[in-house]
Amino acid sequence: MNKIMYLEFERCIGCRSCQAACRECGDHDAKERNYVEYVDFMESRQTFPMLCMQCKDPACARVCPANAIQITEEGVVLSAMEEKCIGCRNCTFGCPFGIPKFDFEENKMYKCDMCYDRSKHDIAPMCASVCPSDAIRFIDFDEMQALRRKRTQMNLVEGKKPQEGNKWQYVPEFFGVYSD
Fold first, then answer.
1. Could you give the C-alpha distances from 164 to 161, 168, 169, 170, 180, in angstroms and in order?
2. What is the 3-state secondary structure (H, E, C) of 68-94?
């Protein structure tokens, strides 16, 4: 996999096309594995996409007693394997981002796996392929670095200071996230 997921939260327009595309993906059984959240529903209409951050050391996999959550060679954290998942929901409680969701009908955890069947062949995941505002992109690492440099320069122009010790340090190099 030579490309990365890049999220630019300020670009999200809340259209939820990423969720609709996720439902249409082949093996998702008409269930979305990504979400669109409101920043502060009472004060703003600003939304942002919530995808699995594909952590370097995923808490969901660490707390799974059945070893049902596998990590690919590329570092993609997959949904719980149906034959191993015991439905304990430890993964849903362990994730610091609140990504894994539990399906009580199927008794199984679901989460974004970056459409691994597509992304392992450098084909954009469904959500990135339909996002009309480019809030979710599947791009080359060099392109992501250029976007980050541009954003850093804009933050300096706008008088914003970089923050240290935030939660984005969990995120591996192949998953680019921009956030103020």
1. 10, 9, 9, 12, 11
2. CCCECCCCCECCCCCCCCCCCCHHHHH
- Confidence category of residue 127, pLDDT binned at 50, 70, 90: very high
* Model pTM above 0.85: no
Helix (H, G, I), strand (E, B) or coil at 128: helix
Q: Which residue shows structure tokens 């979400």?
A: 35
Give the number of other CB atoms < 10 A from CB of residue 117: 13
What is the C-alpha separation between 91 and 109, in angstroms, rounded?
8
pLDDT at 168 over 80: no
Helices (H), the chain: 17-24, 59-62, 90-94, 116-119, 126-130, 141-157
Polymer length in residues for the chain: 180
pLDDT given for residue 153 in this prediction: 74
Confidence of residue 162 (pLDDT cuts 50, 70, 90): low
> How many angstroms separate the CA atoms of 174 and 5, rounded?
7
Q: Quick one: which of 174, 176, 61 has its CA closest to 119?
A: 174
Question: Comparing 166 with 40, which gets the higher pLDDT?
Answer: 40
Q: What span, in angstroms and rounded, lies between the C-alpha atoms of 54 and 98?
A: 13
